[in-house]
Each structure stands twice: as C-alpha cells, then as structure tokens.
Design a protein that fits this description.
With about 270 residues, the protein is α+β, with helices and mostly antiparallel strands. It has a domain of about 100 residues: PSTPO5379-like domain (PSTPO5379-like fold). Strands 1, 2, 3, 4, 5, 11 and 12 form a 7-stranded antiparallel sheet that branches. The protein starts with 7 loop residues before the first helix and ends in a 12-residue tail after the last strand.
C-alpha cells in the first residue's frame, strides 16, 4: 500500500516505523511529512563532512532555537541512535533530500545512498510541526503560512553564520496565541516558544504572501495574531552562505519522523491540564 491509498485518519495513526518503511520503498513521493504519525517528534536533517561537523555542532549549541539537537551520528554511520528511531537509515528514510555543493542546490533526490560518504556526520534537529498535533488537540485555531528569512541574526560558529529562518502561524485570536505559547514553550526540542509575536516587518518580513515554501498563503485577516517560531531551515541557509563543499539536508516540510513521543519531551504541564 502506498501513501496515496491512505486516508488522513490512517496517516495520522501511522506508526513512525511504518512511515519510514513507505519512504524507504519510495511510496511517499507526492507527500510531505505533514499530518502523519500523530504525537511523534519530527526532525530536520543536516549532513556535513567530519571536518566541518564540530563547527556545525557549535552553531547548533549556540542557536538552540532553530537548531535543537536530537541526535548526532557516529562518523560514517547513517543510522541514528536506536532510542531515536530503531532500525532507521538516514540515507533512505527521509521523504526527500536537498544536496548542496559550494552553497548551490544541485539535486533533490529521494535516496542519498549514492551520495553517502564515510566521513559524513548526520544531525537530527527538532521541528515545530511536532507540536501542531498538541495545538490542534487543545483546540487552538490558526493557519500556517510558510517559512521566511528573518532579520534575526544567529550567533556565529566557525564557518556558520547568517539570519534565522522562521515559520509563521496566524492565530485566530489572542486567546489562541496565549495557548500556543503555553503549549510550544514546553517542547524546546521542537523549537520551543515563538521568537516573535506581532508585526512581521519588525523582523524583516515584508510580505507574508511570499514565503520560502507555501502552506496556506493568504493575507492576514483582522484580529489574527502573527506568531513566528525558529525554523530548522536555518542551518541550510547558513551552509549556503558558507558555500560548504557539500551539505545534505531534508527538503522543506519533508522531515524525518522519530520514535520519540512528543509527550515525553514536554517540560511541564499546567495545573488546569
């Protein structure tokens, strides 16, 4: 059975290992990772050569908002820790990849086995799509518009520097905005609390209808509250600015799905819950 044959309810109820199996068999080519495996942590992917890996790790540690580290593989090993995703292979189990050479996107394959090198180190970084299930279960009403390059600067580390990429959600009301802060702030492994609330222009975003990648693009409605979270596309942009000889990442919205339940990552729960 391919992903095309499954209903939205079946996709939501799918186990991460089942999803990764479909991806590995390349039966997921027309899908992003949105709306699947309810309650499990999704992760952004970044793969760099060993001689660049320390700089990249330092960049992540200095910028935990856009780059929350979930796992780092051993040199040359494409498999994440068993506790993160049992039996997974990062060469085949991501819906789609991006290959960058000297800062330029050169390919977007579904399998990177032919690109893999013995000196590669892979990083899995938490993704904010992971807490969307929690927002929906709490009745938070919002629209997701896409990802944008902001004017917020990341802290530099070695070869890596540049602006923070952010994702935008338009909350229907101020009450929805408050609940979104309460819920997302408990999961720093999925970017945590928003980095900005309010006027997009204050962080250098001139037009919400011009994202890097579209989810639901429409003008902001009266009463809607714009909220911006750090985005895992940030290190891709930093790698492009550094003109690295090679870097491999996931394609935007095509995340790796881990076996980690988001509930296990929540820092605390409110008294009312």
């Amino acid at each position: 059975m391919s992903g095309m044959d499954l209903s939205s309810e079946q996709l939501a109820a799918m186990r991460p290992s089942e999803f990764r199996s479909l991806v590995r068999k390349q039966q997921w080519k027309t899908h992003t990772a949105d709306g699947i495996c309810r309650g499990y942590l999704q992760a952004n992917l970044a793969i760099v050569p060993q001689d660049i890996a320390y700089d990249f790790l330092l960049f992540c540690l200095r910028n935990p908002g856009p780059c929350p580290v979930i796992d780092v593989t051993e040199v040359g090993n494409p498999c994440p820790d068993e506790a993160v995703a049992r039996g997974a292979d990062l060469r085949t189990d991501v819906p789609r990849y991006c290959i960058y050479r000297n800062g330029v996107l050169v390919d977007e394959p579904y399998d990177i086995s032919s690109y893999w090198r013995d000196d590669f180190v892979a990083f899995l970084l938490g993704c904010s799509l992971s807490f969307d299930w929690l927002l929906k279960e709490a009745g938070v009403q919002y629209r997701m518009t896409g990802a944008y390059v902001s004017s917020i600067r990341c802290k530099s580390a070695g070869l890596f520097s540049g602006p923070m990429v952010v994702s935008c959600r338009l909350m229907k009301s101020s009450h929805d905005a408050v609940r979104a802060v309460q819920i997302s702030s408990r999961i720093p492994a999925a970017h945590g609390a928003p980095v900005h609330i309010g006027d997009p222009a204050a962080i250098g975003i001139a037009d919400l209808c011009q994202p890097l990648e579209k989810w639901e693009v429409a003008p902001q409605k009266p009463g809607e509250v714009a909220m911006f979270w750090a985005c895992g596309i940030t290190p891709q942009l930093a790698a492009m600015e550094a003109k690295l000889p090679v870097m491999i990442s996931h394609r935007l919205a095509h995340m790796f799905v881990t076996d980690i339940p988001c509930a296990e990552l929540m820092c605390s729960r409110s008294v009312s819950e």
